[in-house]
Each structure stands twice: as structure tokens, then as C-alpha cells.
Design goal:
This protein has 303 residues and is α+β, with helices and mostly antiparallel strands. A five-stranded mixed sheet has the order 1-2-3-5-4. Helix 9 crosses helix 11.
Length: 303
């Protein structure tokens, strides 16, 4: 076919052949221009679609951000309401609910502690309220260590102890003591703070953990019922014989009940001074007697 085309062209006059080639080139350029235009139109369409998708994504993010801000505002309002109720009630909290806080480091009120300890100057108690959501351990840990850093930077002269409350955990004692406190213990020991601070666990639904859990994670908790029974027998055998193990557990646990889920942070040095001033086994016995005498047996069994 190619040879035939060349033969035919050879028979045509030269001007005709040149015109035919010129026409062919014009047609090719037109085809190329149409292809270029089509590609440009397609690219513009793709760019328009991409901009529309990006705009929708930006709008969606803005809506999500607005919703998140609104949720945070609602959460903060709820927490602030609880904080106001909490602050109003601190001065009137029953001593049995904060027995370890008040008696272990010489607190004479809900505002100042470490009084009456030789070599330790009284200082204000710091109150910190967590805004973390329920079961959000990373968020709570971040807030806790920020508050702990502030407490350590101020020192014992300006902060005798810290009460760190987490109202969103009030109805979740299971995770509070089984998940959070083991993580808290591991992080404090890993940070090398085990000999600098002491941690005490409080919660509205506090109940002395099971013996197998205490054997692995005693950090911040009451001694086992078995250990408390031995102390009761040592200091007041008659009183000890008047209550069964369930009543003993509930009376002891009442010492750790608080208005909100709470972590009490104490200076280890003050605890050591307090240990020299009083005997732990006697202190626990006295606290259990206060709780037991305050509440009837029927109320204890109904807690």
C-alpha cells in the first residue's frame, strides 16, 4: 500500500503533492490541538472535582471541630458544676471518708495539712480536678503528671499534699482500681518517684480489692482484710470478735470512700515522720471503730 501511494504521488505534479502534504500536516495539527484541548478540559474537570472534595472535607472538619468544641464546653460545664459542689462540700466532708488523709499526715482541716508533725511545716492542700473522660487513662495520666510536676516544683513548704479528683470516673471503680492504679504504680516507679511521694486511692464506690489483686497491686490500697483482722485482734480483740469479715471489709472500705474518684498524693518524708508519731495498726483499728460505730450493721451490709 505504501509503495502504491508513493507510485501515485510520483505521477502527480509536484505542486499537487506539496499541497496534499500541507493539508495532511494541517489535519494532524488540528487533531493534536483537539487532543490537547480535551486533556485540558479533563484536567480542569479533575481540578474542579478535587477542589470540591477538599472543600467538603474542610467543611466536614470544621463541623467536627465545632461539635468537639461544643462537647468540650458541655463536659467542662458539667465538671465545673461538680467542682463547685465538691469545693462547697470539702469543709463538711465526714472525717471517716477522709480518715487516712486527715490522720496519716496530720491534717487539721481540709485546707491545711502536715500540722503537728515535728520538723514539718504546715502547708496548703492543693486541689486539682481532672477533665478527662471516663476510662481515658492516657488523658488522666497526662493531667496527673502535670499536676504532680507543679506540686514538686512548689515543694513541701508550699504544698503539703494534693487531692486529684476525676469526677468522670465516679461510677467506674472497676477500671479505677484494676486498670488505672497499676498503670499509675508502674509509671511512678519507672520515674524513680517511689521514695519521694506516696499515693492513696479513694473512690465513691471503694471496696478493698480481692486478696489476689492486692498481692499483685497493693499500691495505694487498704491492707487486706486478713491483715486488718490481725491488727484488730492485737488492739481490741473484743471489738474484733463482734464483727465478721464482710462487716470488717465494708467498715474499712468506708475510710476510702470520697465524693469523687480521687488520688491523694503525699510526701513520703511526711509519711515517715507520721509513722514515727503513730502506729499504723492502731490507726487503722481506730478508724475502723469510728466507721463501724458511726454506721449500723444493717447500713454497712446494705452499702
Amino acid at each position: 500500500m505504501r509503495l502504491l501511494r508513493q507510485a501515485l504521488l510520483g505521477l502527480l505534479p509536484r505542486p499537487v503533492v506539496q499541497f496534499m502534504f500541507a493539508q495532511r500536516q494541517v489535519q494532524q495539527r488540528q487533531v493534536q490541538q483537539r487532543q490537547v484541548q480535551q486533556r485540558q478540559v479533563q484536567q480542569r474537570q479533575v481540578q474542579v472535582q478535587q477542589r470540591q472534595v477538599q472543600q467538603r472535607q474542610v467543611q466536614q472538619r470544621q463541623v467536627q471541630q465545632q461539635q468537639k468544641v461544643q462537647q468540650q464546653k458541655v463536659q467542662q460545664q458539667k465538671v465545673q458544676q461538680k467542682v463547685q459542689q465538691q469545693q462547697q462540700g470539702y469543709d463538711n466532708i465526714d472525717i471517716a471518708k477522709l480518715a487516712i488523709v486527715r490522720m496519716s499526715n496530720g491534717a487539721e482541716s481540709s485546707r491545711v495539712s502536715a500540722s503537728g508533725l515535728t520538723g514539718v511545716d504546715p502547708a496548703p492542700i492543693t486541689y486539682v480536678n481532672s477533665l478527662s473522660s471516663n476510662d481515658n487513662i492516657p488523658a488522666l495520666m497526662a493531667e496527673f503528671y502535670e499536676a504532680l510536676f507543679d506540686m514538686r516544683s512548689k515543694g513541701e513548704q508550699h504544698t503539703s499534699s494534693m487531692i486529684f479528683t476525676a469526677p468522670s470516673w465516679d461510677n467506674n471503680f472497676e477500671s479505677w482500681h484494676k486498670r488505672l492504679f497499676p498503670v499509675l504504680e508502674a509509671s511512678i516507679l519507672a520515674a524513680g518517684l517511689g521514695r519521694e511521694i506516696g499515693i492513696v486511692c479513694f473512690h465513691p464506690g471503694y471496696l478493698t480489692p480481692a486478696p489476689d489483686h492486692l498481692s499483685r497491686n497493693p499500691f495505694g490500697h487498704l491492707p487486706s482484710t486478713k491483715k486488718l483482722r490481725s491488727w484488730l485482734d492485737e488492739h481490741d480483740e473484743r471489738f474484733s470478735s463482734s464483727m465478721n469479715d464482710d462487716e470488717l471489709t465494708l467498715a474499712a472500705s468506708y475510710q476510702r470512700k470520697s465524693p469523687h474518684a480521687m488520688i491523694n498524693v503525699l510526701w513520703s518524708r511526711q509519711l515517715e515522720v507520721a509513722e514515727q508519731k503513730r502506729k499504723s495498726s492502731l490507726l487503722y483499728t481506730q478508724n475502723i471503730k469510728k466507721a463501724y460505730n458511726k454506721l449500723s450493721k444493717n447500713y454497712l451490709l446494705g452499702l
